[in-house]
Amino acid sequence: MPLTALLTRLTAVGPYFTADPTPRADPSEGGFRPMAELHGDGIAGHVEEIGRRMGTGAGRVAASTAQLGLASRLWSVALGCAALGGVVPDLGPGRLWWRRPPAGPVELRLPGPRPLPGPLPEAVHRAVAVGHLAPLDEAVRSRYAVSPRILRGNAASALVGAVRVLLDRAPDAPYPPVPLVEHLLARPPLQGTGTFLHEEGLGVAFTRRSCCLYYRVPAATCGDCVLRTRAPGRTA
Known about the structure:
The protein is mainly alpha-helical and 236 residues long. It has helices at residues 3-10, 43-54, 60-85, 120-144, 148-169, 177-185, and strands spanning 33-34, 97-99, 107-109, 194-199, 203-208.
């Protein structure tokens, strides 16, 4: 299936899996900006807005949440394409564009998508972990002092969230995503970030070994929260 058709089909899976593949003379039309800006000083404006929406201010909690949300979007697009089409799009920072809507996840635009060569596990790893998460994590660490362990745990949690949705909404995907997720969780940078379980017909479970800091938002914990199994007073 051509990548344009595949990305169009993914919109039915959910908003996190959507990346508009329409070719455009001006990809910035409508307020979209190059994803590459989030790998540097551009992350500050995004974290500030996330902090405003959460009521936490532009500190570590907002920075962690922003990184987790971006990781979710990136893994979802790459994993969705791999599972439904057996191909991974080139999500290079110079090819991918983003926009922050008034509510909900960031919107992505990938005009004229092209495939990445190589086996699916390596292509997904290169598209997301190498192409985006490494520079994004460096930007967040250097500006907000969020630990590498937290950011790696966020990335793993985002990946597991993506496969949960795929198993629920595309259970007959021709390229099963669970073995791909297991491979990614077993290699750096996600290795050692948590315990992943999959039982056929029942879905997946994941308990992370680090804290995303979301517990600092009143009455809130994430679905993979480490604090559910950790002694009181201990955080990561």
